[in-house]
Amino acid sequence: MACPLCAEDGGALVWRGDRLRVIRAQEVGFPAFYRVVWNAHVAEFSDLTAAERAHCMQAVAVVEQALRQHLSPTKINLAALGNMVPHLHWHVIARFDWDSHFPAPVWAAAQRPSPAAREATLHARLPALENGLRLQLAALAAA
Amino acid sequence: MACPLCAEDGGALVWRGDRLRVIRAQEVGFPAFYRVVWNAHVAEFSDLTAAERAHCMQAVAVVEQALRQHLSPTKINLAALGNMVPHLHWHVIARFDWDSHFPAPVWAAAQRPSPAAREATLHARLPALENGLRLQLAALAAA
């Protein structure tokens, strides 16, 4: 069975470099849910070399900082799971105390409806956030 | 309200260094569930300096590699959530295709009972795993 993260971007492409790409997840009810996807097919974080791991986590930190700066979330959630798609990808999720699952993980049962107006307010901030991200990720790749 | 990860180890202490500690989680139904806890109270991964983040993730990779080497899991799950306890801690979880939740995240609903015999087999391997971990974490801290 073909790996979906080898076959496709895996979401709305924000930026792509030689080693990794950043996409916005589109299939879930969280407006600020990004993924850092390692381009090469490796299953586990420790399949990367130490230098690759450091680079990967610098990109994760860049995305986290952009979410904090632009959206002031209650909390950031980071995760590399891959049980369904064992191709290394880091979930970087801005969480809010009003979101549908907070304080539970996004993979648990929803606790309340997601307020559409607040989601729309966040969504309007994503273009500026993503423009900033592209600049920072390009700078990181060139460093 | 006092932070529980400032007040206590947060689980069975495996190793403690100046910057971080590793504990085995005891409150969940997964036999190989560890946490890398940053000793100082910071909420987010990006509250650390770049050097601190690199050190933290090297420790996460050491734990991941020990789990892979000793237990040959189906997958490793890594996560830093902290919605309930906003003190930086990394979950490092060995997942097996027979475990109670696989392939769902451990925070989703259980899919089947957890097989006690298989859990016991894993549990018997943890002392050797943790002895190895202590040596490697000490070496990392001294590097």
From TrEMBL, chains A, B:
From what superkingdom does this record's organism come?
A: Bacteria
Q: Which PROSITE patterns match?
A: HIT_2
Any Pfam family hit? HIT
Where does motif Histidine triad motif map?
Answer: 87-91
**What's a single GO MF annotation on this record?**
catalytic activity
HIT domain: which residues?
1-102
**Descriptive protein name:** HIT domain-containing protein
Annotated source species: Acidovorax carolinensis
